[in-house]
């Protein structure tokens, strides 16, 4: 019997309109009633994710910033990892040959140089989380949890080559979505953060199940006792984790249907066609 359930938010727990469906909310409450530890593992900032959970009446553990921050179920920060100052300095000050916009995440919020298009803000309509305009080249080198570049995928693929050549093995690069490439502290991801949290709770990764849909979920899904891939997941994720079950789409609240079946028969294998 698994004792912790970890959920990616966008594309997994949330529907495409960035809301939690009623069936999903009901099954999360069932997990809490069964005394399972509920954890939300997201690329979002704490100031973005926590208000969403509060609106839903959920009190779970939070892994935010793709593993750069870990919080307990009362909002107490358990762990923080930032980009090394030299790496942040390089990313912020190097003149990258790209049209991608740069977004810097610090504990105080989301900082960027130019106003963000309204369609990008739709993902944050529940929390009201907003960017702050800043000259990112003047930001301190310390205290930057991650840097994101946003552009069409082909543009980001070219930028990824530049970043890797410039940074070498000093940082991790990850596509959290087709149009978002992130620079993260080396070895920092949802998997390492969940391992840290599980040990804090006296558990092991074998005690955990997890759900995800993007490349920033790869390490977490591959390391837990039971990983589950969304039907709407990035093709790269499915190909890298072929041993894991693939369920339905987030639009149909597939996580809820999977867990409803699992709660009835935790020892049985679920088929998404059922």
Describe the structure.
By secondary structure, the protein is α/β, with parallel strands linked by helices. The chain has helices at residues 22-33, 46-55, 85-93, 118-121, 153-167, 190-200, 218-223, 235-240, 254-264, and strands spanning 4-7, 37-41, 61-64, 69-71, 77-80, 101-106, 109-112, 131-133, 144-150, 171-177, 180-185, 208-212, 226-229. The strands form 2 sheets. Strands 5-4-3-2-1-12-13 form a 7-stranded mixed beta sheet, with helices on both faces. Strands 8-7-6-9-11-10 form a 6-stranded mixed beta sheet, with helices on one face. Strand 10 and strand 11 (180-185) form a beta hairpin. Helix 1 (22-33) packs parallel to helix 9 (254-264). The longest helix is centred in the middle third of the chain and has 15 residues, at 153-167. The two termini are 22 Å apart. The mean pLDDT is 94.
